[in-house]
Amino acid sequence: MQTSPLLEALIESLRCLPGVGPKSAQRMAYHLLQRNRNGGMDLARALTAAMSQIGHCEHCRTFTEEDVCSICNNPRRQNSGLLCIVEQPADIQAIEQTGQFSGRYFVLMGHLSPIDGIGPREIGLDKLQKRLQTEKFVEVILATNPTIEGDVTANYIAELCMQAGIKVSRIAHGIPVGGELEMVDGTTLSHSFLGRREINN
Amino acid sequence: MQTSPLLEALIESLRCLPGVGPKSAQRMAYHLLQRNRNGGMDLARALTAAMSQIGHCEHCRTFTEEDVCSICNNPRRQNSGLLCIVEQPADIQAIEQTGQFSGRYFVLMGHLSPIDGIGPREIGLDKLQKRLQTEKFVEVILATNPTIEGDVTANYIAELCMQAGIKVSRIAHGIPVGGELEMVDGTTLSHSFLGRREINN
Fold first, then answer.
1. Residues 6+ positions from B58 with CB-CB distance below 8 Å
2. B133 versus A2: which is more confidently predicted?
3. Structural class in CATH, domain A5-53
4. Which of A107, B129, B141, B197 could bond to A61 as cystine, CB 3.0-4.6 Å?
C-alpha cells in the first residue's frame, strides 16, 4: 500500500522504460523525489518535447525535429555519392562513432517480415527506389543486421540497386576484433572464411 | 553526432535516473520514440505531477500529496498505540508488504550524521519528541538500518523514548530466513547469537 496515488502512478509509468521492473521503478521514483526533483522536472520536459516534436527526416527517415536531418543537409556528405542502409536510427549513431563513413544514410525503421505484414512499402523501399533513380549514388552499402530478416532485406535492396545500375556492397561479417576464435559461433566463423581477403604486398 | 538536439537532450535527461548510464539512456530514448510515444507522454505527465505535488505528511513525514497521509489518517492505526521509526519512505512500503505491523510510522528521511551536518533537527526529532509527549504511544519500534549511522540514530531516539517513559524496542538482526550460516558475515552471526531467544514449551 502506497501512501500516495501520484507516487504509485509514477512508479507504474516508469515501467514503460525498457529493462525497468517494479523494483527499479520504485527505486527511481524515490530517488527523484528525495534527491533530484529538478532532474525529474527536466526529464518530464525533455520527454514531452521529444515525444511530440521528433519526427522523421524526409530523405533518410531517421529521427529529427527538422524536415531534413543534419546529415542529409550536409553538402560534403551529399557529394560523397555513398548511401548506407541501416535498420534503426541507433545504427546511424553507432556508425558515426567509428568515423569510417562520410556518406548519407537511409533508415528502414525495421526489416522485411511478411508474417508481421511488413513488406517493402512499410520499410520505405518505394522512397528508396525513387532516391536511387533521381540522385546520383556511386555505391550503396547494406548495413542491415546479420540476421535472417536482415539478410533477406539486404538481398531485396541489392536487387533494386542492381536494377538501377548502382554498385552495391554488404558490410563484412566475421570474427569481432579482440574476439577469440574458439569462442565464436560456427556461422560467424564460416562467414569469416567465406569473406577472407587475399593479402597483397 | 546525433541528428536531433531534442533526442540528445532526452538521452542526457534520462541519465538522472539511478542506474541509467549513457547506453541504457540511449536505448530507452529510442525505445520510447519507436515503440511507445504514448507511454513517454504518460511518463512526462506522471513525473510533472509527482515532482510538483508530492510533499510530506504533517505527522509522519512520508511522501504524500495530502496534508496527512492515509496511514496516519486511519483510526484503526491510531488506536494501536505503536509507532515504527524508519529512515526512508521506501521502508514503510517494505514493512507494509509483510502485513506484520498495523501501527503508525515516523520517517526520519535520513539518519544522524554530524559530519554531513545532519543533526536531530534535520531528521525531524523535534517533531518526534513533540509527538511522543502529546500522543499516547504504548511502544516505539526502531527500524532504522543496521548500519553504524542507523544504530547511532536508534540509540539517540531510544533515549528520547525512555525520557518520555515509553517502551522502546529495536527490530531483530540476525540470519536472513532462507540464508545459510556459512554464507553470513561474522557481525550478523554474532548479532544472531546475542539476540537468541529461549524456546519454551
1. B67, B68, B72
2. B133
3. mainly alpha
4. A107
Locate CATH 3.40.1360.10 in chain B.
Answer: 79-166
d(CA B151, CA B146): 6
Q: Which of A4, A30, A52 sits opposite B90 (nearest CB)?
A: A30
Reported as type and span, the H/E element at residue A84 is strand A82-86
**CATH 3.20.20.140 describes domain B10-53:** no
Q: Do B47 and A39 touch (CB under 8 A)?
A: no
Q: How confident is the model at residue B47 (pLDDT cuts 50, 70, 90)?
A: very high
Chain centroid to CA B70 = 16
Q: Which of chain B's residues have a Cβ under 8 Å away from the Cβ of A57?
A: 3
Residue pair A15/A29 in contact (Cβ under 8 Å)? The answer is no
CA of B98: which chain A residue's CA is closest? Answer: A1
Please provide the CATH number assigned to the domain covering B79-166: 3.40.1360.10
pLDDT in tens, B67-112: 999 999 998 888 889 999 999 999 998 999 888 899 999 999 999 9
Range A56-170 classified under CATH 3.40.50.150: no
ipTM given for this complex? 0.85
Domain with CATH 3.40.1360.10 in chain A: 56-170
- Rg for chain A, CA atoms, rounded: 22
- Phi, psi at B57, each rounded to 5°: -65, 135
Compute the mean pLDDT over every residue in chain A, rounded to the nearest whole number.
91
Mutation target among A45, A51, A106 for the B interface, most CBs of B within 10 A: A51
- CA distance to partner chain A, nearest, from residue B109 (Å): 8
Nearest beta carbon to residue A16 from set B3, B6, B42: B42
From the CA of B82, how many Å to the nearest CA of chain A?
A: 18
Q: Using the beta-carbon criterion (under 8 Å), do A46 and B13 form an inter-chain contact?
A: yes
Location of each CATH 1.10.8.420 domain in chain B: 10-53
Closest chain B residue by Cα to residue A13: B43
